[in-house]
Amino acid sequence: MTREHLLAQLAQLSDEDLEVALKAGRASEKARQRDRYFLHHFFAEQRVEDGDGQAAITLPVTDLILNPAKMVHGGVTAFLCDNAMGMASYMEKRRPGVTLEMSVRYHKPGRGRHLVARGEVVAAGALLNSARCEVRDDSGALVATATGTFYHRQAR
C-alpha cells in the first residue's frame, strides 16, 4: 500500500480508532528500536519491581484488552503471567530465555483500573527455571495463578 492510500484509510477512522492506530505505530517504532517488544508498549505494561528471581508488572485495564463480557481477556492475563514469570526468570539467570510451557488458572474476572502480576522463580537449574505467578486486581483480589518453565541458553 502507498502512504497516500494508508493516509486516506486513516482519515476515515474515528478519533478513538486514530488514537489506537497512533498507539500501535508508536509501539511498533519502539520495538524496532529494540526497546522491548510491541505488545509491551501497546498494552502499556510497566515493571514495578524486580530482583533476584522476582518481578512484578502492572497492566492498565483499558477497553482494548476487554473481552465482550467486559472483563480482561484471558489471553491478555496469560500474556501478563508469561511476562512476569519470564522477567523473574531473567532476573535470576541474567540472560535471555524463552517459555517452554505455562499453565494458567483463572479465579475471577479481571476488572478494575489495573492488574498486577508477581512472578517468582521457585526452582533454578543450569538451563531451566520453574516459576509461579499471581495476578491481582487493584482491590487485591486474586484473578489468576500460573506456573511455567523457562529455558536459558548457556552464557557464552
Automatic annotation (TrEMBL):
Pfam families given in the database record: 4HBT (PF03061)
Gene3D superfamilies in the cross-refs: Hotdog Thioesterase
Gene Ontology MF: a single term: fatty acyl-CoA hydrolase activity
Entries under InterPro entries matching the protein: ACOT13 (IPR039298), HotDog_dom_sf (IPR029069), PAAI_dom (IPR003736), Thioestr_dom (IPR006683)
Keywords tagged on the record: Hydrolase
Domain Thioesterase, chain residue ranges per copy: 71-143
Family the UniProt entry places it in: Belongs to the thioesterase PaaI family.
UniProt xrefs under NCBIfam families: unchar_dom_1
This protein's name: Uncharacterized domain 1-containing protein
Organism in which the protein naturally occurs: Alicyclobacillus macrosporangiidus
